Amino acid sequence: MPIIDAVFQALMLGGLYCLFAAGLALVFGSMRIVNLAHGDFIVLAGFIALTVTWTVPVHPLLSLVVVVPIMATLGYALQRFILNRVVGADPMAALLITFGISIILQNVLLQIFSGDTRKLQAGVLETASVAFGDSAIGLYPIVVFVVAVTVIAALQYLFYNTEIGRVLRATSDDSQTVRLMGVNQNHIYAVASAIAFVVIGIAGVLMAIRTNFDPTQGPARLLTAFEVVIIGGLGSFWGALVGGIMLGLAQTIGARIDPGIQMLAGHVVFLAVLLLRPNGLFPMVTHS
Amino acid sequence: MNRRLEGPAASGLLRNLDSAKAPGVFLLCMIVLGIASASLLDSSSLRLLTEMLIYLTLAQLWNLLAGYAGLVSVGQQAFVGLGGYAFFYFATALVVPPIPALLLGGLVGFAAATLASKVIFRLKGAHFAIGTWVVAEICLLTVAVIPTLGGGSGMSLPASIVRTLGAGRQEREVLYFLMAFCLATITVALIYVFMRSHNGLALMAARDSERAAESLGIDAMRIRRMVYIAVGFATALVGGLIFLLKLRMTPDAAFSVLDWTAYVLFIVIIGGSGRIEGPFVGTVVFFILRALFADFGSIYLVILGVVAVVVMLFAPKGLWGLLSQWTDFELFPVRRRARSQAFRPCPNSTT
Fold this sequence. Notes:
The complex is a heterodimer. Chain A is mainly α. Chain A has one domain (2-117, 134-276): ABC transporter involved in vitamin B12 uptake, BtuC. Helices cover 73% and strands 3% of the residues of chain A. Chain A contains twelve helices and two strands. Chain A has helices at 2-31, 38-55, 64-82, 91-113, 124-127, 139-161, 163-173, 175-180, 185-210, 218-232, 238-257, 262-276; strands spanning 129-132, 135-138. In chain A, β1 and β2 form a beta hairpin. In chain B, 71% of the residues lie in helices and 1% in strands. Chain B has a two-stranded antiparallel ribbon. The longest helix of chain B has 28 residues, at 169-196. Chain B has a domain at 40-257. Residues 1-13 of chain B have low confidence and may be disordered. Chain B is mostly helical.
């Protein structure tokens, strides 16, 4: 059943894309900042995991124990010491600074790890599969999908049911009033960024097990994440899951037609959504 | 030249824009210098100057987009690449002479920008930036699957075509230099004239406060789209010239985000965005840094990135911004500033 195969492949690819996008959606949704180095941080997480597995021979998934705290710290520091200086100003400053950081990260990684393509070896997890009717589904893609759903559910809960989520939503609506209420925005923004970087860390490790990666691949990850966010809309984190699956589906179908147009097919779907539904499938509710 | 401003201008609040002589003198000096270099320098020095002029032009164009129109694009490589490919295609497959082929390349950029603006102008601010990058990716991926354009392995310009521009190397380098020189001069002159016009003022007003500008009846979208398309045309023209110099192009080189956007961006940031003088300073600093550190490979790019980030954080108006803040001097005055001290709470205001 090639159609069922394609749909499953799209679902699984969509899970990974959704993880790429969730951090971007969180940061943009609360601070109106787009981090152009987002993709490079995903790749950085992959390289940190690689270094961990080189140092201690553990299963790559266990490297998350190290990767996630490092990424969270990086996210907090990036926001607190650099991006908070320009938040709320025109979007140009944050864009250009993160663009600079993207170039810096790519070249630091290139200097340390060279341009070779890498991959994390996850042993039997990569080859195991589950029978489903007359086709077999890889176990690892299912794991990625389950992680993606869990992360989205967690973010959704955090954003809509907790104190910090309330502050973030309020900040996104009217940051001046929130400041008047005595909230330390510098800290809140940095925490939001740290949460986004936790997701980046998870995404980076899962990506590094699934595909080859090298220091120059950040921008491609950024564009994927961005397209997912725009397709899904900024109204709900579940939009990222739907956006991810749509992009995955487009790429899977594109690849079946001709491997050369796999990425192109994804971009075309993005443009189509932008033309037909400029605010995405789950638009943000505006309070103005 | 700005009738609507006559009232406040007459009351002495606003600088009379017509009195500026510095740009004319500066351009005259540049033209004399240009002719002198074309007749005196050897081909490798000319090549370096040509490259500098190309980056100056790209930086001026990007500055017009981002610094004045508030359209931060990280996808201008789309137009460099399209201009280059169109030029190669017209010159080789359709045997159009090189100079008309360059202009046709510019028209392709114009068409592409018109088309792209229909989609990406639906995105605002930061999202617009990544949208432009997606457009550039689409151009790259599309060109890479078209066999007539050489697919992934690219195209080259046959020597027979190059020779139609001049028999000897020196002769051709002089021609390339003059072409780059004319492009740069015309670009700077047009930007200067445009920024002093009604539309230029409207553009700056919309950048500083979109709501206020629109409440005064400015159709910011229309002017921005116009600027985006004009910049697309000019960038494609420059792209054709770039690959006329390089003689060979692949999709990755033609649509390189590093070469045609990152470097240009760093030049404008370091020199100072939102000022015509900025890209001049930035280009000189960029080429000095390149001469000093280019041999270090990726470390050089790290240094460049760090310089750009530091400038952005601590001197967001760039080196020229610092300079003009201290000296109150402007080479290309396009801003209207209050003259009376009572009306000057902020030395950098544009109104």
